[in-house]
Write a structure and sequence with these properties.
Blueprint: H1 21-36, H2 43-55, H3 59-72, E1 81-82, E2 86-87, H4 89-103, E3 104-107, E4 110-113, E5 124-131, E6 135-142, E7 145-153, E8 161-164, E9 178-181
Parallel strand pairs: 4-8, 8-9
Antiparallel strand pairs: 1-2, 3-4, 5-6, 6-7
């Protein structure tokens, strides 16, 4: 998956940037080809696939990669199982990072909530999830829409916090440094 570093963990190719549309499509096509040809064949690469699919807003691909990781590359104690049967921490850290990418993405100072939420996670909550810039998010969602949201920073900041409006089911009352973007 190293050719897709520009998509994740890097951010050279951005899903919401219209100028990157061809790059996003090329990444999506190439990732699918890799997965159909035994890509994601270890715990760490399955975890990386979760994040790649999440960055592409492909909730089904992200979910199937999480499922594959748990079913094929995880010991009963949830440690990552690298073939032939040894523990490797990369899959554990990568899985957490990938699931976080499914729930919250932050890019160019804008936070996006639930960008790659699969139907299987249609209702849920998370607390203490930290986005770029030390922004802490607690949220609850129902029917794939945010119904409760608390946003705070780890350190006092006067910078604007921008939240993309998609996936919000309620009007939010915000503090002065929080903006809702269309």
């Amino acid at each position: 998956f190293s050719p897709f570093y520009c998509l994740y963990p890097g951010n050279r190719v951005k899903y919401h940037n219209p100028k990157d549309g061809e790059w996003v499509a090329a990444c999506a096509e190439a990732i699918e080809a890799r997965m159909k040809n035994n890509g994601g064949g270890t715990g760490w690469s399955s975890a990386w696939a979760v994040s790649l699919y999440a960055r592409l807003h492909n909730s089904n691909g992200a979910y199937l990669s999480v499922k594959r990781l748990l079913e094929q590359f995880t010991f009963p104690n949830l440690f990552d199982k690298h073939p032939p049967n040894i523990f490797q921490i990369d899959g554990n850290f990568g899985a957490v990072a990938g699931i976080n990418e499914m729930l919250v993405q932050s890019e160019n100072g804008i936070i996006e909530l639930l960008p790659a939420l699969p139907n299987e996670f249609r209702d849920g909550f998370v607390s203490g999830l930290v986005a770029k810039g030390g922004i802490v998010i607690d949220m609850q969602w129902a029917d794939k829409k945010v119904v409760s949201l608390a946003v705070r920073t780890l350190a006092p900041s006067q910078e604007k916090i921008k939240i993309r409006k998609s996936n919000l089911s309620v009007e939010l009352f915000t503090e002065s440094n929080i903006q809702i973007e269309n």
